[in-house]
Amino acid sequence: MSLGEMLASVVGGLGLFLLGMTMMTDGLRLAAGPALGRILAAATRTRGHALGSGVLVTSLVQSSSAVTVATIGFVNAGLLPLGAALWVLFGANVGTTMTGWIVALVGLKFKVEVLALPLLGVGVVLRLTGEGQRRGALGTALAGFGLLFMGIAMLQQSFTGLAGQITLPQGEGALGVAAQVAVGALMTVLMQSSSASMAIALTAAQEGLLTPQGAAAVVIGSNVGTTVTAVLATLGATSNARRAAAAHVLFNGITGVVALLLLPWLVPAIAAARQSMGLPEDPAARLALFHTLFNVMGVLLMWPLADALARWLQKRFRAREEDEAQPRHLDDTVLAVPSLALGALDQEVARMGHVAVRMARAAAQGASPPALVRDRYIVEQLDAAADSFVERMNRTAMPQPTSERLARVLRVQRYHQTTAQRALDAAPLVPVEGGTGGLQAVFFQQADGLLALCDPQAGDDGLPHLAARSAAMEQAYQDAKAALLAAGAQGLLRLTAMEDTLCRLAALRHAAQQAAKAFTHRAGYAHGGEQPAEASAPAEAKP
């Protein structure tokens, strides 16, 4: 076989490996559905749980890049706090070492075609017969696993032929090690898969193209190279997402530097550990053990530093977060799982509602229209971002319950939009003459109290008091309205002033009613029903 044919075989093997990895990742993610979010969100109560979740999910998905991107997406969507996300990311680095063990103990020991072809066949059958179902997603994952093993087989055969024709960076000096690290990082950046570069390092070591220390340096480089995927995932993302990516970069960078400094001692220690553990006497098993131990070492290094790192990151990347018009939860990485995308949309709509309620309260307290313009702009931008996100959601088939809840979220979004517009219509609210100022002030106070209760960021503790608050505001409105009409009829107030004030009072009342409707509807679907039993959305009385 000529050198050109061997290189073509390497490219083909890499293609099969990466295609298999992608299919396996996508299939497992779709088969898990909302369960993936539950593992990464609900199972992160402590740093130990978060670390274990990262290890478990990455071991199952066999792609730290996929888990890293998903975790950044969950942080963006508000489903995962930054502190927990750090440990999921650290765990993902440990979980990805499972690829090395699969390649070392399975991929290089057996004729993987025997295992790969049945997996591919069964997977394709499940995929064709289970279109749009969990069975189809599992079929995609099985077919991907089969292609992954076929890629490993092609790589092994190619490196066997290349062993005598090419030379990878050699040497144990500083320049040689640096070149080996650079090769590992470059392969990962180009292929966007540390698993693929790990497979190359293992097969190259097995075929004698790399010394144990050289292969270890390549593995360190591949670990550092994975940070590029995290950085790419944050392009155009929110502040918290960039903080999570920065933590990933720091973890891999610090771990890589420490491993390089200890490399002359780590490699012999790994050899001794391999012998004591009874592992096979070959470079691939030794390298897989090195990969696992140096990532575990990184976790141990970060254990006492994580809290300080989180505090330091919270002070960084603040420019976009301080711009309230920039969405914080809408991220395309969660679109593949409709329930997660819906949760992100709900949180962004709640942010929009908070700004709309803030506008209405400012109007009730006498703010002028120019003072509300900035908040109105924020509401418009968030509304447009939410609409665009929903359009992208609709490109993916979603279950009926998710579709029904989406309709409720959109209804709440419309309520918030109307609240903001009516708040702008109400300003400025200044009590007019004619002996009605006291009753108007009471109405303003009651409306402000109801709006404070309906703020989406205030929680739903005030739900039992909503009906009473709504009734009190309505009574105050009717009293103020009657007093204004009487003052106009008696000539105590100019009719134009009376009409203008009545319109502004009605606008504020409508804004408060819309905010109350949004509050009750959101509490309803959050509790799994149409509306809570404690309160129903207040009816809008006629002016």
Descriptive overview:
Helix content is 75%, strand content 0%. The radius of gyration is 30 Å and the shape is elongated. The longest helix is centred in the last third of the chain and has 32 residues, at 495-526. By secondary structure, the chain is mainly alpha-helical. It has 22 helices and no strands. The model is unreliable at 529-537 (pLDDT under 50). Helix 1 packs antiparallel against helix 8.
Q: Specify the number of helices.
A: 22
Percentage beta strand: under 5%
* Unreliable stretches: 529-537
Task: Please tally the β strands and state the result.
Answer: 0
Task: Provide mean pLDDT, rounded.
Answer: 78
What string gives the helices and strands in order?
HHHHHHHHHHHHHHHHHHHHHH
For the report, how would you describe the main beta sheet? none
Shape: elongated
Distance between the termini: 88 Å
How much helicity do the residues have? over 70%
Give a nutshell description of this structure.
The protein has helices at residues 3-32, 34-41, 47-61, 64-76, 82-95, 98-107, 112-129, 134-162, 174-191, 194-206, 212-225, 227-233, 239-261, 263-277, 283-302, 306-314, 338-364, 369-393, 400-426, 437-453, 466-489, 495-526. The protein has 543 residues and is mainly alpha-helical.
